[in-house]
Amino acid sequence: MHGFGTHGVWTGFSTLTGEQAARIEQLGYGTIWLGGSAPTLAPVRAVLEATDEIRVATGITNIWNTEPAAIAGEFAALETDFPGRFYLGIGVGHREATQEYASPYQSMVAYLDVLDDAGVPADRRILAALGPKMLRLSADRALGAHPYLTTPAHTTYARDILGPDALLAPEHKIVLDTDPVTARAIGRPPVDTPYLHLANYVANLKRLGYTDSDIADGGSDALIDDLVAHGDKDTIRDQVDAHLAAGADHVAIQVLGAPESTHDITDVLEQLTAG
Fold first, then answer.
1. Domains of the chain (ranges plus CATH)?
2. 74 φ, ψ (degrees, to nearest 5)
3. Which of 196, 200, 188 is nearest to 147 (CA)?
């Protein structure tokens, strides 16, 4: 329906090489999500240049360290050179990192107003959204929502708010390792720091029923297991695809613990798609 494919890859904009982007496309993933808060869209151009058809989205462009008029100009240039392939993921980040964080919802509305005036189509924008107000805004002023650090239960909740037509593309972390102790040792640190210390993510996890004890001390095993799929490829596929069963259109897979021999996430992605 939305053309993103059922599965994409979420990775940091500063770590993805052109060769890796091309390999992700060859493996059949539908979208590359460039994570982090790059102050310009230059990393997007590099990925688009390295690939042929795959969609590329920011996950996210932060409204606090970018000017919407400048981003609109960059969007227009990318649209001229790579028509139809780039989607602008936008988010408000979190209050702990941003002195100007007051009124994040109204600040997002104002940012979208500038994008409207500059001609960035609503159906080429995706909002980072966890709670009900931002989810509703995602349906009203954008193509849909890109929730981060969520579970299939949140996907069900988000779909109910978004309605049937908006794009819902959650991110989910994976560790391809059948030893749960090893997998949690890989998955826990990037969940704990920073996310279990950020108010918006903690509030969302509590909304889903997790307790203070789940969130404390690096996260309970149950919480980490819900947020970071691990096991063999079939077990991981089942957990990732639970988002699709819960109402997602697309899941952005973030690989943790790439092989020490190569440190290349595409080796894991290839194993995940094999057979």
1. 7-172+243-273 (3.20.20.30)
2. -65, -40
3. 200
